[in-house]
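Appendix B.2, paired examples.
Example (i):
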Amino acid sequence: MSRTADIDLAFARAVTVGAVVRSLAGGGWSLQEPLGISYMVNNDGLFDWQSTLPDQAAEVLSLVDSPANVHHDVGVCIYHSTAETGGQLLFHAARSRCSFIPTIDRRSLSGAPALTDMAWYLNTLVPPLLALGLASYEARDLAD
């Protein structure tokens, strides 16, 4: 049996990927993850993730925040190097909603290792995003 975990974040107004990444950086999150920098622009329905070198962060943010891509889903991977965990941050078209999926060394509950430590992710993601107008979130950990 596999598990699916995600946190859906809803903002009161549209946000940019760059603004979210900068807000999360204060809490230890970064675009640099073990594979470099991973990103995606879904302009063809394929969700084709790309990787690049860590020194390309500004270019990646310019691409995903480009006006040409505002109507496409885009994504970046974020990583918390101190906690050694991270995942995909997917922004939906119009940019007032995004989802975080813990795909990089997912943190599990100490007493129930099959379950995701959603409280840890919420405590590190939610507070920095309040200044950007985070209005609500929904967290799920489901058995497939």
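Example (ii):
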Amino acid sequence: MAEPSRARTAEICLRWLTLAAFAAPILVLIAVFGTRFGLWSAEFGLGVLTLKIGRILAFAGLAAALVAVIIALKDMRRGGLYAAVSLVVAGATVALFLVQELRFAVPADNDVTSDVAEAPAFSRAVLAMRGGQGTAGGGASVACPSLVSVPRQVAPETAAAALSAAGFTVRGAAPFRADGAQEGFWFGLTYDAAIRIRPGRTDVRVAQREGVKVGDEACRLARTVVMGLTPQS
């Protein structure tokens, strides 16, 4: 009777260890849906629940998966599946967290422009959606690596097409400007883009609404817009 009892205890332990491996992914899903449904801010959902608590649970889940492997080695027929599932889930989760940490570790700003002396201003409609932030001038907007103005006057249609190609929804286009917005899929982080068109020069600005640090995402989007404005040889 002792042997079946130990086997039953080992199986129960494996189930709990496997559940521990799923804790971080489940928390991330809760953080995403809670943010999308407005239960908490994107800063709390991404910055606290996911990147802080979720990271701790991810490494705890990996430790639990390794323990599950050790237990399963005594009886692979009963515990092999639990060990394999927990190890795959926990390993993939930790790998994704490490990749995101490398991405978020890049020092960058959420409001970037190709013209720091006089950043393009957002339209009144965009400013209303931003709660009045990002009014004008170069005070709040900063430069980022490899982001430069386009040394020519582009057509409004070209500006709108560049925004669309970069994943923005075009909010408006006029003879000397174009505006767009992009909402992220997971946590709903929104980036606004403004293109200012002048004789001999076109400037770009991209700014996030929420103020949540996510690495160089604003820079990446701005550079993508500039690439769409640049003629390909």
